[in-house]
Design a protein that fits this description.
Blueprint lengths: L1 H5 L3 H9 L4 H8 L4 H16 L3 H19 L8 H24 L6 H17 L13 H15 L5 H9 L11 H17 L3 H14 L5 H17 L6 H6 L6 H9 L2 H10 L1 H7 L2 H6 L1 H16 L3 E3 H10 L6 H13 L5 E4 L4 E4 L15
Antiparallel strand pairs: 1-3, 2-3
Helix pairs in contact: 3-4, 4-5, 5-6, 5-7, 6-7, 6-8, 7-8, 8-10, 10-11, 11-12, 14-15, 14-18
């Protein structure tokens, strides 16, 4: 029934638009408390949304969820989990619409923050349920967590995600593998993005790869979203997406970036990064792309080592080569770059500051990227 209120037919919409029926009175006659309040609030939210009064629509939807919590917190109410997800989703979506409308009017947009507070109540009720696992409300927790992830990412308040992940990793949480695949994919996607932003690139790759692999083949939009963060994550790890894959998911702008990192073309890397700076900032991956510069330097110096044919590499020659490649770099700056590469295990060797040489190991001077822990 709540789904019907969320997607009402034209006949119901006509009645709501006309305002010819007292919704509260009609629901009170047909339903016991607090179900009358739940449905009345939801119908009022639909009517307000039709009038494009999104702040009022959100307020009514929040009232619907608050009334729903009164029923849902009672013992044996796990059968209401599908309805909880419908109402939770409505709260988040109407909060986004309300905030967009308020910003357009120059007013304070704080409905999504309010939504976070009321959605947290859904999270608390599900995660603290003490019923036996087969009838536990905890089976609804992962869907609520995914809604909260969406809210926290939109608010850019990612520190609040820690408690959500801790709950899933806790001993009392139901087996992760037993949840619906759609919920698992959404969870892995957001945890992967968090891991990427926290510079835990190995874990980020694992989580995002899971999300990408388990998305239905027809979900091109969602698979593209996974790749949007998986491609730069793998760049930092020295792994490169194929051009065919990038073209398939309309991510061809990554092609020159992958090529520049792969061959160590520092000039092409810098030019591409600068040209796409606004796009990468908007997508939230600019700092991750910047991290891939370390791999560019590693691959560039590996090529220099092959050309010089010696393990005792002159810093003056390396500086001159960088200048000739269109990236002027004095020796002091070059020493700093090399020291960082050595510290991060991208290069095995040492710098002779006095003699201005980089002395690299005779055995694996540039370890395979798969063997270098991303820092």
């Amino acid at each position: 029934a709540l789904e019907t209120c969320t997607r009402p037919d034209e006949q119901l919409l006509s009645v709501l638009r006309a305002g010819s029926v007292d919704v509260g009175e009609a629901c009170a006659r047909a339903l016991p408390e607090p179900y009358d309040e739940i449905f009345a609030c939801r119908l009022r939210a639909t009517a307000a949304s039709e009038r494009r009064e999104f702040a009022e629509a959100y307020a009514q939807q929040e009232g619907c969820l608050s009334a729903f919590h009164k029923v849902f917190q009672e013992a044996g109410a796990d059968w209401l989990l599908p309805a909880l997800h419908v109402v939770d989703r409505g709260v988040r979506k109407l909060a986004l619409q309300a905030d967009a409308h308020l910003r357009a009017q120059g007013a304070k947009a704080d409905k999504l923050q309010e939504a976070a507070r009321v959605l947290n109540r859904s999270f608390t009720i599900t995660i603290t349920d003490r019923a036996p696992l087969e009838s536990s409300k905890k089976w609804g927790a992962l869907a609520v967590i995914n809604e909260l992830f969406k809210v926290y990412f939109k608010l850019n308040n990612l520190r609040l995600c820690t408690n959500l992940i801790r709950a899933v990793d806790g001993t009392g949480f139901p087996p992760f593998d037993d949840f619906p695949m759609s919920q698992k994919v959404a969870y892995k996607y957001y945890v992967g993005r968090l891991s990427m932003l926290n510079a835990n690139f190995q874990l980020a790759e694992e989580q995002l790869m899971y999300a990408f692999d388990h998305c239905p083949r027809t979900s091109l939009k969602n698979k593209r979203l996974c790749l949007l963060y998986l491609v730069p994550t793998r760049l930092v790890l020295g792994r490169f997406a194929s051009g065919r894959l990038l073209d398939k998911y309309a991510l061809a702008h990554f092609r020159p970036l992958c090529a520049a990192v792969s061959v160590g073309d520092l000039r092409a890397f810098n030019e591409h990064k600068d040209a796409h700076q606004s796009l990468y900032i908007q997508q939230g991956i600019y700092l991750i792309v910047e991290r891939a510069k370390t791999v560019v330097y590693r691959n560039l110096f590996k090529r220099m080592h092959a050309l010089m044919g010696t393990n005792k590499m002159s810093l003056r020659q390396m500086s001159a080569a960088l200048g000739a490649a269109g990236v002027p770099t004095d020796i002091d700056e070059l020493e700093c770059i090399l020291a960082n590469l050595i510290y991060q295990n991208y290069v095995k060797g040492y710098i002779s500051h006095q003699k201005r040489f980089l002395v690299v190991s005779a055995k694996e001077p540039f370890p395979a990227l798969s063997a270098v822990p991303a820092q």
